[in-house]
Amino acid sequence: MKRAIIFTLKDLRNAIAHNEPIYDNRFRSGSISDDLKNCIKADTGIALNFNKIFDYFILVAYILNNLKVSKLDIYKLLQSFELNGDIMHKKLDDASIFFTIIETDTNKKIKQMIEYIKKN
C-alpha cells in the first residue's frame, strides 16, 4: 500500500515543485491503484476516483491521520479547502466551470473525512 500512496502523490509533488497547475489533475501520469482506492473506502467510507483535486486532499488527510498529526491541523486543512472552494464558487459567474474543478459531492466528502478523523 505504501508504494501505491507514493506513486499517487509523486505526480502531484512534481507538479507543485515545478509550479505547474494542479487544479485540473493534468499532472497525473498514470492510473491510481484500485487497492489504494478500496483501502481508503474501506477505512473512511469515501469513494475516491482521483479525477478531481480534492481526492488528493482526502488522501493527504488520510496519511496525516495515520501519522498521528494533530486532528485539529487536519480539520483546518479540510475546512480551508471547503472555505476556499466556497469563495471560488461565489466569484465564478459560471457554475459549470466550478464543477469542472470541484466535484459536487466535495462538501459531503469533507464531512465524511472529519467524522472518520474524529473516530480514529
Outline the low-pLDDT stretches: none
Q: How many discrete structural domains? A: 1
For the terminal residues, how far apart are their CA atoms? 19 Å
Structural class: mainly alpha
Average of the residue pLDDT scores: 91
- Spell out the helices and strands N to C: HHHHHH
Strand content: under 5%
Helix content: 55-70%
Give the number of DSSP strands.
0
Q: Give the biggest sheet.
A: none
The rounded Rg comes to 14 Å
What general outline do the C-alpha atoms trace? globular
Number of continuous helical runs: 6
Question: What would you say about this model in short?
Answer:
The protein has helices spanning 2-17, 34-44, 54-66, 71-91, 95-101, 106-119. The protein is an all-alpha fold and 120 residues long.
Provide the fold topology:
Blueprint lengths: L1 H16 L16 H11 L9 H13 L4 H21 L3 H7 L4 H14 L1
Helix pairs in contact: 3-4, 3-6, 4-6
What does this molecule look like?
The chain is mostly helical and 120 residues long. It has one domain. Helices cover 68% and strands 0% of the residues. The protein has 6 helices and no strands. Helix 3 runs parallel beside helix 6. The two termini are 19 Å apart.
